[in-house]
Amino acid sequence: MIDREMMERDEELRKLLRQWEAPEPGKELDARVWNTIRQGRPARRRVWLPVAAGVILVAVSAKLWMPAAHSGNIETRVDAVGFRPVADGMITVMKAGEK
Amino acid sequence: MGMTEAAFRTVYEEYRGPLFRFAYRLTGSREVAEDLAHDCFVSLFHGGFDERRGPLKTYLYAAMRNLARKHYRDSGREEPGYDIDSPVDAAPLEGMISRETAATVHCAVELLPLLQREAIVLFEYEELALEEISKIVNADVGAVKSRLSRARENLRRCLAPVMKGAAR
User: Could you tell me the end-to-end alpha-carbon distance of chain A, in angstroms, rounded to an integer?
Assistant: First the structure.
């Protein structure tokens, strides 16, 4: 009831406003919407996907590389069997050939 | 959480035109309206719709309104015309009066403060009821009527020369 009263009061303005027609949405909108939907994920997730893939790749590479570095042939072992500390801990400087 | 493709298709076919036109009349740009309609529908597809939120129609219009307002905030266009009581300066239209009436009306609507513009677009172009508009814009019916009244006042002032011409 209120709506009708308001419309009737402004019929002249209403007719004038109706002369401005909005365009119909184009096929481009349909294509964009369906493309996005069929990709199955929101646009933001698509942006982050390559970043996430890069991070995973780096992490996997690092994991593969690290054990390789540790499993090389260079190995240091200390065998302390039979070790006896020097009784006199003084330092003696000797020239080459001296006994 | 999201919608099935079949359910989405039904909603899309029903609302693609109305929501696009609403966005176009709020922003005045076909490209922007397409962007906003795209975002609105994709968001609906992924987020789904809970009937407890109310009717789908008002939910979609409200979502589009929020996207349009975000667009205005991001582009810095909201401030000058946002105030509900802002009088509209009709000067930019003076030179247009002799040109096409539709273009003049377009400009007159675009000159309205955002709250008045969305009220007039939803009421006059989308032909929604005041109660529906009040839900969409999250204001009571009295506030919507007040915005409509001010919008009409501004439009009558801006379009006075065109209206005189039409009356002759």
Answer: 122
